[in-house]
Amino acid sequence: MSKIPSPDFNELAKKAGIPLDEASWKKTLKDEATKQGSMIANDSKYSPFWRLIENLVVKPTVWLVSTFLVGYVLPNMFVATAVEQWLDLWAWQYNLKRKSATKTRGKVVFQRIAAKGPMIMIPAGTWVQTEIINGTVYRVQVLADTELAENATEVEAIVEAEHAGAAYNLGGGYYQYLSTAIVGVHNISNPDDWIIEAGADDETDDDLRLRIRNQFTSVAKWHIDAAYRALLTARAGINNDNVYFEHNAPRGAGTANAFILLDTGEPSQAMIDDLNTYIKNQGQHGHGDDLLVMAMPNTVIDIGCNLYPLPSLTAEERQTLIEQVELFIGAAFRENTDFNVTKTEPAVRFSFSRLGQELHRQFSGIESLEFDNRDFVTGMNVPRIKTLGVIDATA
Asked: Rounded distance, CA 123 to CA 126, Å?
């Protein structure tokens, strides 16, 4: 995310000579009273006059200046520091509205146990769930009755997340268990590119202020990056900083590519097709423009990690630790959002030493760990996990 400034308004007020505390305001008033020829000489803390002034003038003034003006009004006068309803007012000025939370929609593959067999009905309302991920089980529901045709080995069913939120945009293979068994069905899984409509959380203040800043540069309707970024983020459940552009006429004069990245999971071809149709066929492109929307290309890697648990951990605790470490590493490679971890990004160095530090902070049961991998620098692609092996090195 682009760095958002956070100025110290108290320090700015002090530099402007504005008193911010009771002692400063009392001195200011005393100095002003002296200038006006005041004859009141008793300025002790027990002076009835100054006690009255402190309660009727100084304290209300300090509240108005320090709390209301400096702490509330000034920050909300700028997009960079405005919050909540104030930021919504800024968005309205640029014809934007805070995006509400949405549910993930995608496709899950159901496979037959036998090579051949009769038609199997996958009923609408069937729940497909994950393992426990950081204390949470995620579920998606089949939206319509889906037939696994006679002798067909597999069928895709359209599913929707149980609740709204980006956490349901999990990577391929996470949704693999039926809440209720279906006779004849053997294997269930969501493919890597399973997401048709990405789920999203209620838009945060930081994400909204970045869209407002982007909208400011696109209001002239010239079809530069800002205009296309505004169109794509409004259409799909993606953040402002998850759209990357490739210029230099990749397909000839007037052409550019827009690569879409999700915080977790991968966009399906249906999602990419919808965005291209929206840009190309619904009057959203500039004169002579040729913008092609694509999913951010992947680079798959094998990851190996030797884990040294604390000697005091039981066998069950060691196994749980290994499973949680695997999920944590998966979060770093955009497979889930259940951990606060530095994620892989295009055109940056990915640091395994930093990943190790974050693992130590997250899990107190780790004595040490060693990755088989070295740091790498990505181009216009995002690293994904091909294989992941976390091994108890003390076993």
From this structure: 6
**Cα(339)–Cα(242) distance, integer angstroms:** 19
Q: Are the beta carbons of 368 and 321 closer than 8 angstroms?
A: no
| Residue type at 327 in one-letter notation | L
Helix (H, G, I), strand (E, B) or coil at 10: helix
- Phi, psi (5° rounding) for residue 249? 50, 65
Q: Are 317 and 365 in contact (CB under 8 A)?
A: yes
Q: Are 188 and 202 in contact (CB under 8 A)?
A: no
| Angle 23-24-25 from CA coordinates, rounded to 5° | 95
Strands of the 290-295 sheet, one edge to the other: 243-246, 255-260, 290-295
What DSSP element (H or E) covers 208?
Answer: helix 205-218
* pLDDT tops 90 at residue 281: no
Distances from the Cα of 112 to the Cα of 88, 127, 150, angstroms: 50, 17, 10
- For 52-116, the DSSP string reads HHIIIIIHHHHIIIIIIIIIIITGGGSTTT--HHHHHHHHHHTT--PPPPB--EEEEEEEESSSS
CA 6 to chain centre: 20
Look up the pTM and report it: 0.69
Q: What single DSSP character describes residue 356?
A: H
Categorize the per-residue pLDDT at 221 as very low, low, confident or very high, splitting at 50, 70 and 90. Answer: very low
What is the sign of the dihedral through the CA atoms of 246, 249, 251 and 254?
A: positive
Q: Report d(CA 353, CA 376) in Å as an integer.
A: 12
Cβ contact 17:24 at 8 Å: no
Average per-residue pLDDT in the chain?
87
